[in-house]
Each structure stands twice: as C-alpha cells, then as structure tokens.
Design a protein that fits this description.
Blueprint (H helix, E strand, L loop, with lengths): L14 H29 L91 E8 L13 E8 L10 E8 L2 E8 L10 E7 L5 E10 L10 E5 L7 E8 L2
Parallel strand pairs: 2-8
Antiparallel strand pairs: 1-8, 2-5, 3-4, 3-6, 6-7
Length: 255
C-alpha cells in the first residue's frame, strides 16, 4: 500500500469540439470586422473602403452663386443738354421741266373701230341642228293624278321613259330640261331609271306646284354618257288645265 502511487487521470481532448470552438471564434471575429466595416462606410460614404461611393450632388437653385464681377466702363460719356431740339433742314426739290407737247398729224391718227355687238340667242329661241339623230321622241299630255293622286291639281312636271331599238328600257341615260317658265330660268338634269313609277327606265322632273301655261319656252333633250346630245332640243308647251299638267315624253332609239 505504501508503494502505491496515485497518478492523475488524463482527459482526452475532444478534437470535434475544438474545431467547432475555433470556427465559432472565427465567425464572431468576422461579424465584428463586418460591423466595423459598415460603420466606417456609414460614417464616411466617400471612404476608399466603399466600392460604390455616392454620386456627386447636383447643384440646386438654392445654392449660393458667386456673383460675377461687373465691369465698369472707363469711357467718359458726354452729357447732353436737358432740352435738345433737332433742327430739320429741308432741301429744295428740283423742279421738273415739262416735256414738249407733240401734235399728231392727220395721217398719224388711226380711226377708231366700233366693235359690232354679238347677239347671243336666248333660251326661248329654238336651236336646230343638221346632225341626224338616232333617237325619236313622242310627247303626250295627261293628268298628273294618275301618278300623284294626293297632289290633285297642285303639280306640274315632265316625266317619261327611255327605250332601246328592241323596245326594252334603257337605264342611266341623261335627260336634260331647260328654258324658262313664268319668267324664271329652268335647268334640270336626271337619269332614266330614277322614277320606277313610269317603268324601269322612267324619269320625272318637277316644274311647279301648280299648272302654268307656256308656249315653246321649255325644251327637253336626251344625252349619252359623255354629255353628247342624242336628240335635238325638243320644245313643248304647258297648260293650265288639270288634265294636261303632266307632259309625258318617251324616247326611243331608232338605230
């Protein structure tokens, strides 16, 4: 028992715990370094440590502007009098010398020519052409109540239709009516086929809201698509009676 020595037990070092402790200390030191780094940039954004320094501030209107130096001219300006009245000098205008008067000799005088007035035929004058036409026209008179029963006798007009050589209706043919009625100029144009009450190629032209008598002062004419006349101006009469207040004109191509 006397020779027995007590030896202290050696504890085994846990390498795994040591490694975790070293890593924990490293993380804490890194956090402290990052905190110091961010505090340095926060206090001084323009520090060289900041990889993204702020842009230079844009000068505003409220910044103090250094006044520029005013240059005072050194030249001496002559003082003008208090009252200055300009003096105007009128230059005499040169006198004009009249040109000598020339006297024309009798042989130098050209006799004046009096133009002959040109007589323009009026609308009431029938115009006849020698060009043979390929369309004939037939005019009859009837009561307008056959087509306008609601108008009674309060109507005056011209109507009709256009037929071809085979007797079939021809549409889109131009019909022109002109002249004077009761002292007023009349000028109307229509196309065949615009009034189907008189047939597929029917047309109608209204002259007045009441019958008026006239003698050869109105004319009607058939035109082609180029406004070339296919007939002469065909003059007709109008009557006051209610049984003749519709002038019926039938155009028929003969060739």
């Amino acid at each position: 028992m006397d020779n027995f020595e007590l030896k202290p037990e050696r504890k085994k070092v846990n390498l795994k715990s040591l490694v975790w402790n070293i890593l924990t200390v490293g993380v804490l030191l890194g956090i402290c370094c990052l905190a110091f780094y961010f505090m340095a940039i926060f206090n001084n954004p323009n520090s060289p440590l900041n990889p993204f320094p702020p842009l230079a501030p844009v000068p505003t209107l409220y910044q103090t502007v250094t006044p520029t130096q005013t240059i005072t001219p050194t030249s001496t300006i002559m003082a003008l009098p208090n009252t200055w009245t300009p003096t105007t000098t009128i230059q005499p205008s040169p006198s004009r010398t009249k040109a000598p008067t020339w006297t024309l000799l009798p042989q130098m005088i050209t006799p004046s020519v009096t133009p002959t007035p040109i007589i323009t035929p009026t609308e009431s004058t029938p115009i006849k052409t020698s060009t043979p036409m390929s369309v004939s026209a037939k005019i009859t008179y009837m009561a307008s109540t056959d087509f306008h029963p609601d108008k009674n006798c309060d109507w005056l007009g011209v109507a009709g239709k256009v037929l071809g050589t085979d007797g079939k209706p021809l549409q889109f043919q131009a019909i022109q009516l002109g002249g004077t009625l009761d002292g007023k100029a009349i000028s109307l144009v229509t196309l065949s086929g615009d009034s189907l009450a008189y047939g597929q190629s029917g047309f109608e032209l209204i002259l007045s809201d009441h019958p008026i008598a006239s003698t050869q002062t109105l004319w009607i004419q058939l035109l082609d698509n180029t406004a070339k006349p296919l007939t002469d101006r065909i003059y007709f009469d109008t009557y006051v009676g209610c049984t003749q207040n519709l002038v019926m004109v039938v155009f028929t191509k003969t060739r």
